[in-house]
Amino acid sequence: MADTSPAPAERSTPVIAVRGATRHYGAVRAVDGVDLEVAPGELFGLIGHNGAGKSTLFKMMLGLIPASAGDIRIDGSPVTGSGFRAVRRKIGYLPENVVLYDNLTGLETLEFFARLKGAPASECGPALERVGLTSAARRRVREYSKGMRQRLGFAQALLGRPRILFLDEPTTGLDPEAIREFYVILRGLKADGVTMILTSHILAEIQERVDRLAIMAAGKIQAVGTVQDLREQMDLPLWFRVRLAHEDFHHVRAVLGGLPVLAIEAREDHVAVECQRESKMVVMQALASLGDKVLDLHVHEPSLEDVFFGFSD
Ligand SMILES: Nc1ncnc2c1ncn2[C@@H]1O[C@H](COP(=O)(O)OP(=O)(O)OP(=O)(O)O)[C@@H](O)[C@H]1O
Fold it and tell me: For ligand 1, is residue 53 a contact (CB within 6 Å)?
């Protein structure tokens, strides 16, 4: 069969390409030799403790803070060069602390940002609708809740139909329903081919939603890949939750005897069996051999939080 996959050069041309990016503030290495690539249409997550360097890296990637060293290109254009002006028009940015004017209404706020960006005013109403603020469009921002302000900030980032979105902690202050709606919007943007990079502290929230992510600590990228890649790199153990028909815990012990398990523990209504990833199938087969003595079997993979603490501590 003919290979219809893109040529390597085409496939590997990143929208965001960061090489050796460094930013020092006196003795503080806020960003320290970062290499990072984000592919076209990718939804990429950047996670890290407070002070890890995420916001500084974001601002460097946007050309808002000059790098002490390194090379940063967006859509092939260096962020410090004159050619970046044209690229900037394709970018939407939601800063960590979006500055809003309390005396303006939501609609006036967007009209103000639209003028700054050179985007048509006709986009403002639909942008407010997209983030669920239509009914609050004529209320002053001073009356907005934290979550409403955050949605308004997101709406301004969408003005000008950006092809690349930088979202710094976009879900701060949003309730669970608003977070879900926010990711529905991101999925729609992704379907349109928009490239996105976002930061978050809520690991459970981004674990199922980003294509790839990077863990940043002390200004450096500690690990990058899919959540599954990171689990494998970390080589954290996984565990089985085994629910038995009767309390015949000794059957589990017997069937696992001699196998490379790390722990077997009887808990309230189940038995927990811990093993390394490479032993997963042999342990599973042994447990399955118990037949109808087993009522239920569940495999628990390490969460992104487990992985994160493994890499960033
Ligand atoms: N203008 C500045 N002057 C001096 N130090 C700075 C400046 N901006 C950032 N830093 C330092 O750089 C480091 C990285 O900060 P940064 O805001 O990028 O982290 P972050 O990962 O975005 O943190 P958070 O999750 O808390 O937003 C911190 O030690 C911070 O104190």
Answer: yes
Q: Whole-angstrom Cα distance, residue 155 to residue 157?
A: 5
Return the best residue to mutate from 34, 47, 54 for the ligand 1 pocket (most ligand atoms within 8 A of CB).
54
Task: Give the position, in ligand 1's atom list, of the atom nearest the Cα of 56.
Answer: 18
Average pLDDT, rounded, for the chain? 90
Among 22, 51, 20, smallest CA distance to 36 is for: 20
For ligand 1, say whether the CB of 48 is within 6 Å of any of its atoms: yes
Residue 232 DSSP SS3: helix
Residue type, 45: G
pLDDT in tens, 80-114: 878 888 899 899 999 988 889 999 999 999 999 99
pLDDT over threshold 70, residue 9: no
Q: For residues 286 and 304, what is the distance between their CA atoms, to the nearest angstrom?
A: 28
The pTM score is 0.85
CB atoms < 10 A from the CB of 283, how many?
Answer: 22
Please tell me the CATH superfamily of domain 235-312, with its number. YebC, transcriptional regulation domain (3.30.70.980)
Q: Which residues pair with 255 in a beta bridge?
A: none
- Parse the chain into domains and list their residue ranges: 235-312
- Cα distance between residue 263 and residue 308, in whole Å: 23
**How far apart (Å, rounded) are the C-alpha atoms in residues 262 and 105?**
60
pLDDT surpasses 60 at 11 = no
Pairing of the two strands 212-217 and 43-48 = parallel
Identify which of 10, 8, 20 has the alpha carbon closest to the alpha carbon of residue 71. 20
pLDDT digits (tens, 9 = 90+) for 126-150: 999 999 999 999 999 999 998 999 9
**pLDDT at residue number 41:** 95
Region at 285 (left for phi over 0; alpha for psi -120 to 50; beta for the rest): alpha
